[in-house]
Amino acid sequence: MKGSLIVVGFFALGCLLGWSGYLPGVVIENDITVYVLYLLMFQVGISIGSDKKLKEILSSIRPKLLLVPLATIIGTLSFSALISLALTKWSVFDCLAVGSGFAYYSLSSILITELKEPTLGAQLAAELGTIALIA
User: Using alpha carbons only, how large is the chain's radius of gyration in Å?
Assistant: First the structure.
């Protein structure tokens, strides 16, 4: 519980700092946030890869157990595509991009915003990135 409050607190602090304009231009205008997220993903990979029991854990997984994540992926992407029929503002590809973020909300929101900005414009890309963050 304490860890969740800390994460929410830092998120709120970041929103307030970005809104207030106290951050230097280099933090906002450059792609520093993307590189920080890439670094964090790299560290997660190192953490998982350095686990001495990883090979043992992977070999102990029964193939039948993999049906749960597979069903989760198929269900998430299917319903993300279906919801695009009800949302006229977003295409099926936009909805699939948001749905395919899964638990990497911080990375997917930034990537969606940056990748969609040339086609949707800054405002709509930011909206779609915010939806990915919240979803």
Answer: 18
- Note whether 92 and 84 are within 8 A (CB): yes
Please report, rounded to a whole number, the percentage of residues in the chain having pLDDT higher than 90: 14
CB 128 within 8 A of CB 120: yes
Average pLDDT value for residue range 70-92: 91
In the DSSP assignment, the letter for residue 33 is: H
Segment 61-89 shows an average pLDDT of 90
pTM of the model: 0.59
What is the rounded CA–CA span in Å between residue 80 and residue 68?
A: 18
pLDDT of residue 117: 87
DSSP class per residue in 66-130: GHHHHHHHHHHHHHHHHHHHH-SSS-HHHHHHHHTTTT-HHHHHHHHHHHHHHHH-HHHHHHHHH
Query: Which pLDDT belongs to residue 28?
Result: 55
Single-letter residue type at 77: L
Q: Which two tokens stand for residue 36?
A: 């920080």
Q: How far apart are CA 134 and CA 101, in angstroms?
A: 11
Residues contacting 26, CB < 8 A, separation 6+:
32
